[in-house]
Amino acid sequence: MKIVQVKCPSCGTPIRMKNKEAIFLCDNCGMMHTRNHGIERIDYEIAEFSSSVANERMYMPFWRLYCDFSIRSKNVEGGSFFRLSQWIKGDKNSGAFFVFIPAFDTSLENFKLLSIHLTLNPPHYRTTMNFGGVTRMPVLMTKEEARELADFVVVTIEAEKPGVLQYLDYSLSVKDERIIYLPFTKTSSGPVLAV
Ligand SMILES: [Zn+2]
How distant is the alpha carbon of residue 121 from its chain centre? Predict the structure, then answer.
């Protein structure tokens, strides 16, 4: 296992990073940063566990991208877009929404399930200041990789209902991105969201 050690740019505390984690998180002052293109601060949130959770806990990191989109032209049979329409207000052809991208190592199938579910149903949670001793999964995806996947998630969501979407030309621009640590519990059927 390769260990990289850097100093926190905020407080100077040494930070050890295991393997290929894409971010550095300071245990002392809580600053998160990357060094892909020089030192860059990353915003993040830690969601609180719901109090009723009894099973083993863990935190899974997601990139949450705030996206603007606008539709340039479309040709749709059977009404409107399956999902994009819910983000469009009134007669406009544009809107904004959050896209959630799993930042941890997972299968393509699970990646699709989680990104679609969370993008369509953004979780409501209270934030907390620290992990409270709960294990966090490493962030293995860079911000740039997450941005490139935003389109894939939107297209996958629209493709869920085959035959309806005939043609869609749109632009998607990412306005903001941050890491959200979401609480999960381990169950016999896999991890379950616990907000
Ligand atoms: Zn620090």
Answer: 13
Cβ 32 vs Cβ 11: under 8 Å: no
pLDDT value of residue 76? 58
Tell how far the Cα of 34 is from the centroid of ligand 1, in angstroms: 13
Per the structure block, which two tokens stand in for 173? 């621009």
For residue 45, which phi and psi values (nearest 5 degrees)? -130, 145
Q: How far is the CA of 1 from the centre of ligand 1 (A)?
A: 24
CA distance 183 to 13: 27
Tell how far the Cα of 19 is from the centroid of ligand 1, in angstroms: 20
Dist. CA 155–CA 162, nearest whole Å? 12
Task: Give the pLDDT band (50/70/90) at residue 88.
Answer: low
Distance from Cα 67 to the centre of ligand 1, integer Å: 30
Question: pLDDT band at residue 2, thresholds of 50, 70 and 90?
Answer: low
